[in-house]
Amino acid sequence: MICRILLLISLTSCVSGRLVVAVTQTSYQAEENHNITLEWMFTTKRDGSSTSLSIICYMVTDRKPSVLYYLQKGIEVPESQDEQFAGRVQSEKAALRKGQIRLHVSRLRTDDSGLYWCEVKIDDDLGANRCHLNVTATVDHQQGSGGLYVGLVFTAAGLIAWGVLFCIERKPYYRY
Ligand SMILES: *[C@@H]1O[C@H](CO)[C@@H](O)[C@H](O)[C@H]1NC(C)=O
Ligand SMILES: *[C@@H]1O[C@H](CO)[C@@H](O)[C@H](O)[C@H]1NC(C)=O
User: Fold this and answer.
1) Which ligand places an atom closest to the C-alpha of 28?
2) Where does the sequence pass through the membrane (predicted)?
């Protein structure tokens, strides 16, 4: 399986053009834990009947390529998906018939940032294109100041409680 994927990747890097793959957006910006839909479009003169259509989409970072979607001759091969994307990627089946690849990626992580390639193969025609995704960490200022505020309230409450206890404890002493 892995060999086949690598073969498809290497084939695509050698052959290009005959099948045109385009992206609707070259760059996406998103926040951690949000969802995004990455989109590609492919056009071919050949009959793009589903049984001859193969697609592999993978993310490239400086470490290694991770597969997020693999369709082999019209059949999804979830076993080929990288663990990083397990249960987080959904392909719109209806879109494929219109020559669109629409991948919904949910619960985005900062390490999802990178270049996303989709390679399309119909019979002997190949094509590929890429887009960039940048996932930024959620910086929640409000939560930070909220925590500080709660901390201050607790400190104040603590001081008051201590003062009250101190007064109560002192009272009997004055009776003597
Ligand atoms: C993200 O997608 C998941 C399922 O794919 C859904 O349950 C969730 O509500 C979505 N979240 C947002 C913020 O759209
Ligand atoms: C990702 O987005 C952040 C915040 O907008 C920006 O500062 C950073 O330069 C972007 N990184 C890339 C590689 O585009």
Assistant:
1) 2
2) 148-168
